[in-house]
Amino acid sequence: MNIGIVCYPTYGGSGVLATELGKALADKGHMVHFITYQQPVRLNAFHANIFYHEVQVPTYPLFDFPPYESALSSTMVDVILNQKLDLLHVHYAIPHASTAYLAKQIAAKHGIRIPFITTLHGTDITLVGKDKTYEPVVTFSINESDAITAVSKNLREETYKSFPIEKEIEVIYNFVDTARFKRRDLSHFRNAIAPNGEKILLHVSNFRKVKRVPDVVNTFKIVREKIPAKLLLVGDGPDRPVIEAMCREYGICPDVRFVGKQEQLEDVMSISDLFILPSEYESFGLAALEAMASEVPVLSSNAGGLPEINIDGETGYTSPVGDVESMAKHAIQVLENPELLAKLRAGALKQAQRFHINNIIPEYEKLYQKVIKPR
Ligand code: GMT
After folding, report:
1. Ligand 1 atom at minimum distance from 210 CA
2. Residue spans per domain, the chain
3. What atom in ligand 1 is closest to the CA of residue 119?
4. Which strand ranges, in their side-by-side order, compose the sheet holding 147-150?
5. Architecture of the domain defined by 2-174+357-372
6. pLDDT of the residue at 263
7. What is the CATH number of domain 187-354?
8. Any atom of ligand 1 within 6 Å of the Cβ of 218
9. Strand partners, 352
C-alpha cells in the first residue's frame, strides 16, 4: 500500500508512535509518506520505502498566525495526487483530522477517492479537543473520518463521553519494538550514574502539568530517606523550573539528574530499576510500555488507560492520582525485596510482549485494507 502519515514530528507520544508505525510498515514493504512540518525525531535513518514531505508555512506581514492548516492540507493534496496515495493516516485529531477532511474534498474534485483514518491519542480528546473553541471542528472531522482508532479502551470511552461520535471507534493499542527496547548490560553506564550501587528511579515525559512531575520528586524524596537512590528525569517542558526548585529546597540535587530530551531511551531504561508515571491522565503511557519491555517495573497512577497497561501487582503497581505515599511505599517494598523485583520484572516483560509490534501492525494493515476498498 501507499500510505500517507501525518503527525506531530516532536518528542510527543503520538509522533513517536506514528513514526514507529511508518517505519514498521516500510519494513513490511509498504510505501510510507510522512507529511510533517519537520523531520520526525525517530525518523533518523535512510529507508528505501520511506519518503518525507515537509510542510512549508510561508509567512506574510498580514498574518499574525500563519495558516498552517491550509499549508498542511495543500501539501496533503500534492502528495495524494502525485504519489498516488491509497490512504491517509492522521495521528492526533487536532488539526490533522480537519486538514485531512479538506484534502479529501479537494482530491475528490480531481476524481481521486482518498480515505482517511484518524487515530486519537489522548490530549486531543481529554484536554485540547474538549475546549469549546475546537470542539465543533473536532467532532465534525472525527465523524467524517473513514475509520477512527483510539489507543486504549479508556480513550475510546472518554471520546464517546465527550463528543457526539456517530461511528465505531476501534481500539488499536500502542506497541513496542522489543528488539530495540530490551534490557542490556550497561554496567559502565550504570556505575557512572550510581557509583555506590544506588537504586535508579526513572521518569520520562514532556514535563507538562498532566504528567505531575512534582509527584515524582516527592516520591523520590521519601524513597531516598530509606534507600540510597538516584532519580533520572528524561525530557523537558514547562514544569522543569518548578521541579528544579523542589530539588534545591529538598537538598536532593546531587541525586537528581536532568538528562534532557533523549533519543537513546533504551539505554537509560536498561540501567533503571523502577519507572514512575504519576500522570493526572494518560490514555496509554507509551514510555511505560517501553520501560516494561526493558524489564523495568512501573509505578503509575491508576488514571485513564494506565491500568490496561500496568497491571497492579504483576507489572508494577498503580496508585490513586497524587498519592505519593502509596507510590513511595511500593517503591521501597520492591527495591528492598529482590525476589519481588525479579517477579515484577518478568511480569513487565511478559506484558510488553503482548503489545509486541508484530501483533499490532497487522491490526492497522487490516483496517487500511478495509477503508481502501471502494464502497
Ligand atoms: O502527553 C503526551 O505525552 C503527548 C501525547 C501525544 O499525543 O503526543 O501523548 C498521548 O499519546 C501517547 C501515544 O499514543 C500516549 O502513550 C500518551 O498516554 C498520551 N498522553 C496523554 O494521554 C496525556
Report:
1. 23
2. 2-174+357-372, 187-354
3. 14
4. 50-54, 31-36, 2-6, 87-91, 116-120, 147-150, 169-171
5. 3-Layer(aba) Sandwich (3.40)
6. 80
7. 3.40.50.2000
8. no
9. none
